[in-house]
What does this fold into?
Amino acid sequence: MTATWRDQLLPASFRGISFLIPLTSVPVGMKGQLHEFPQRDTPFFEQLGKQSRVHKMTAWIIGDDCFERRDKLIEALETPGGGELVHPWLGRLQVKAGECELSHDLTAGGMVVFDLTFYPDVPLKMPGAKANTQAQVVNSSDSLLTSSLSRYKAAMSMVNAARLGLLQMRSGVSGVFSVIQQQFSPFVSVFTDLTGFSQSLINSPGSLSSLFSSYFSDFSGFNFFSSGSGGSSGPSSLSGAGTGAGSGYRGALAESAQQTEAASSINAVGSTGGVDVVAASQATANLVQDAVLVQIGLIVSEMPVATQPEPIESTPSVEQQAILPVVRPEVPVADDVIELRDNLNEAVFEASLKADPEHYLLLNSFRQTVVKHLTAVAASGVRLVDITPPETLSALVLAYRRFGDATRAPEVVQRNRIRHPGFVPPVPIKIAQR
It folds into this structure.
């Protein structure tokens, strides 16, 4: 026999104290504000969200032990905090007791009547602190630069300039000068060639530290994520897809990776020449290496933790996308970010092995903050997967079938170095997971 609605009712109770409920009510629907305007017959109702589920009910306690159960219910109602209400019609609810009323009626015999009010017991959402990893990278980069300049000045003050030979200095700082030419182009006009750079170190060693100090005080970043550079508002959802290698995550990652290699290349200098030549060359290499690391830190600090794009509910046709491309926020490729993080972590660790204790702590702090931020950026990105096209397809068709977004065709071409975008061969290629 099918259970009736009466059989499905639950025995009412609050915090284990049972009672009967002949009548109960709870507001539902939407709360709002009714706007009425002069000289207009049509009002406007503004919805302001769902109404709070405030349960109001009449409760009966009946029986020879009604006074004893009454006192227990009063104690339960007056206990602070939430409790479980077993509602005959609505099931088990977590509520807090509100304004209630107790009444006795001599003619009712052994019955006590309660008018109960219960409010939803919704846990408060406590504010949570979230570390600003971008700001932490900037702060650690500034501290590292300050320490690097001080370390360079202290090291050069111990060098006897009279013992520095031009030929030996040229040999010792040739690799360092190449890095300066590649990574700090404004210095090229100051040091015309390797000989001029070596002479400057011999005659005026403090000029190099002054140049770096001025350079970073005016440093405004590479603007990989500025508006109009193909960043977050471009037609692509992945780094390097349709934005060009010089913008967005792709540009920042490529620049950072290239500078990481440059920093590792001058970790040590040759031991040719006298003690003073080696000391001056190593001090110069340390300063330039730290300056490159600081510059990498400032580039990395520009990378935001990406916001995941909303899935495309309906896929527009290729013809529609040709007229109105799909616009999605840019998301980094996690594999590229992780590769940069690991390489940069190794480069900074190697640099810290030849640092004094104070500078070691700053390098280690810099390494930790950069790794922490890049880990957060990678977590917000997409992973790469290996797929094999079933047949030779154009990159546009492959992107449309895979993502529903034909504008991501350049992403497939650039990632896999396809010779012609019209012919993607049926061989294993790497493509974004989503």
About this structure: Residues 228-245 have pLDDT under 50 and may be disordered.
